[in-house]
Amino acid sequence: MIIYKMYSDELKDVSIADGFFDGWLNPPDKKTHRKILSNSFKSIVAIDESTNEIIGFINIISDGVLTAYIPFLEVINDYKGQGIGNKLAKMAMEEFKDFYMIDIICDSELVHFYEKMGMRKSNAMIIRNYESQSGV
């Protein structure tokens, strides 16, 4: 069974499954991944109770007043197609529904996924320092 929880220090003993940041040249290690979950304004995780592993997550950076930004929504490959990413995104949208703006930057093939949640396509500007991709 998959359960969903707000990430907190109470979950520090729940393992992070292998397979996150698939395809990255310099992926963060699990220690850095856990820092991402801990240091975000909020993170929601999907946990496979049978393995006691985090198999999906979404994290939110926010000022806590008007703005929320979602940098990551990931589900490891073995669990894709089960609605886990959809559930995580809906939980995040619900959590911040009263905020002025919720932003995400995504690859073109994911635009339809977010449009189904009521988001609309916009413009964005980015910088990517791939040398720092694994964390500072």
Largest sheet: 6 strands, mixed
Task: Give the % helix.
Answer: 10-25%
> What is the number of helical segments per DSSP (H or I, 4+ residues)?
3
Beta fraction of the residues? 25-35%
Ends: how far apart?
A: 35 Å
Could you give the count of β-strands? 6
Oligomer: single chain
Describe this structure in words.
By secondary structure, the chain is of the alpha/beta class. The chain has helices at 30-39, 84-95, 111-115; strands at 2-6, 15-16, 42-48, 53-62, 67-75, 101-104. Strands 1, 2, 3, 4, 5 and 6 form a 6-stranded mixed beta sheet that branches. The protein is globular.
Features:
136 residues, alpha/beta, six-stranded mixed sheet, 3 helices
Q: Topology of this structure?
A:
Elements: E1 2-6, E2 15-16, H1 30-39, E3 42-48, E4 53-62, E5 67-75, H2 84-95, E6 101-104, H3 111-115
Parallel strand pairs: 2-4, 5-6
Antiparallel strand pairs: 1-3, 3-4, 4-5
In short:
The protein has 136 residues and is α/β, with parallel strands linked by helices. It has helices at 30-39, 84-95, 111-115, and strands spanning 2-6, 15-16, 42-48, 53-62, 67-75, 101-104.
